């Protein structure tokens, strides 16, 4: 069908792609990818030929230049697929301005949904999943990072971050300092051979990874602050205990 389809690709295991996504990739008139090489490799794994179809690159640095070209394909009534390098497009990946432009021009926009590291990490973390805030990558600069963390302090939800392994230790330490010592989970290499999920607190994980960065790709998940986590009964019990101590 004419229009733009956002196709989710695997976050590691090449088989984590839906049957529908493969159908859409096989049928599209025009393929657009953040990384054309990884899309071609994925299609090859699944036996989908490119044929004579155009495979255009669309990424952070050429988006403004490429958008008119892609819009022209949509104007011409073609079916266009967009994939980011891994996982769900637009999730800490480019594409939202393409979606906006396509919508504003009245084209059909739909998705073939699939894997995302944020949701996979959340489901494995053991942290409350009823409310979560996806915070993407923190800024690199320390001041900006700490400010971004401080803005999240009062958010009553599990926080999800993407982080590079080499910054993980410093980020954990900063998060412990700014957010307080909260339950936390480090989820690494999800769906891949060396998948690992470590639970602890921000301080315990900070100690574990200080100067010892893990290998691969990392999602960091942080439980909500204590006030939101403590039940009324626990508060009553803590009050009783405190009163008892005072009367001794
Ligand atoms: N669009 C992707 C998604 O839906 O998850 C995310 C793209 S973002 C540029 C890449 C970051 O996602 C990595 O630095 C890492 O934090 C996280 N990530 C991607 N794949 C992962 C995996 N298999 N295990 C853990 N984290 C992963």
TrEMBL record:
All copies of domain Tetrapyrrole methylase, residue ranges: 4-205
InterPro entries documented for this protein: 4pyrrol_Mease, 4pyrrol_Methylase_sf, 4pyrrole_Mease_sub1, 4pyrrole_Mease_sub2, rRNA_ssu_MeTfrase_I, RsmI_HTH
Cytoplasm among keywords: yes
Gene Ontology molecular function, alphabetical: rRNA (cytosine-2'-O-)-methyltransferase activity
Reactions listed under catalytic activity: cytidine(1402) in 16S rRNA + S-adenosyl-L-methionine = 2'-O-methylcytidine(1402) in 16S rRNA + S-adenosyl-L-homocysteine + H(+)
Organism superkingdom: Bacteria
EC number per UniProt: 2.1.1.198
GO cellular component: cytoplasm
Chief localization: cytoplasm
CDD domains: RsmI
Keywords: Cytoplasm, Methyltransferase, rRNA processing, S-adenosyl-L-methionine, Transferase
Pfam families (alphabetical): RsmI_C (PF23016), TP_methylase (PF00590)
Record's subcellular location: Cytoplasm
PANTHER family: RIBOSOMAL RNA SMALL SUBUNIT METHYLTRANSFERASE I (PTHR46111:SF1)
Family the entry assigns: Belongs to the methyltransferase superfamily. RsmI family.
Function of the protein: Catalyzes the 2'-O-methylation of the ribose of cytidine 1402 (C1402) in 16S rRNA.
NCBIfam families membership: 16S rRNA (cytidine(1402)-2'-O)-methyltransferase (TIGR00096)
Protein name listed in UniProt: Ribosomal RNA small subunit methyltransferase I
Lineage of source species: Bacteria, Pseudomonadati, Pseudomonadota, Alphaproteobacteria, Rhodobacterales
């Amino acid at each position: 069908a004419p229009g733009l389809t956002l196709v989710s690709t695997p976050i590691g295991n090449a088989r984590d792609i839906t049957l529908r996504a493969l159908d859409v990739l096989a049928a599209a008139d025009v393929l657009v990818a953040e990384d054309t090489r990884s899309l071609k490799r994925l299609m090859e794994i699944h036996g989908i030929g490119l044929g004579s179809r155009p495979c255009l690159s669309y990424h952070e640095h050429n988006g403004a230049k490429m958008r008119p070209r892609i819009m022209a394909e949509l104007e011409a009534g073609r079916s266009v697929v967009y994939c980011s390098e891994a996982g769900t497009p637009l999730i800490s990946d480019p594409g939202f301005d393409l979606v906006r432009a396509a919508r504003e021009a009245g084209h059909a926009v739909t998705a073939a949904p699939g894997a995302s590291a944020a949701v996979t990490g959340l489901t494995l973390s053991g942290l409350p999943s009823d409310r979560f805030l996806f915070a993407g990558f923190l800024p690199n600069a320390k001041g900006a990072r700490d400010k971004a963390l401080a803005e999240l302090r009062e958010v009553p939800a599990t926080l999800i971050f993407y982080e590079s392994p080499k910054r993980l230790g410093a980020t954990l330490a900063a998060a412990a300092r700014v957010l307080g010592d909260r339950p936390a989970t480090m989820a690494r290499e999800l769906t891949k051979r060396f998948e690992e999920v470590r639970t602890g607190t921000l301080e315990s994980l900070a100690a574990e990874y200080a100067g010892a960065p893990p290998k691969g790709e990392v999602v960091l998940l942080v439980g909500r602050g204590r006030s939101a986590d403590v039940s009324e009964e626990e508060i009553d019990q803590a009050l009783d205990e405190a009163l008892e101590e005072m009367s001794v």
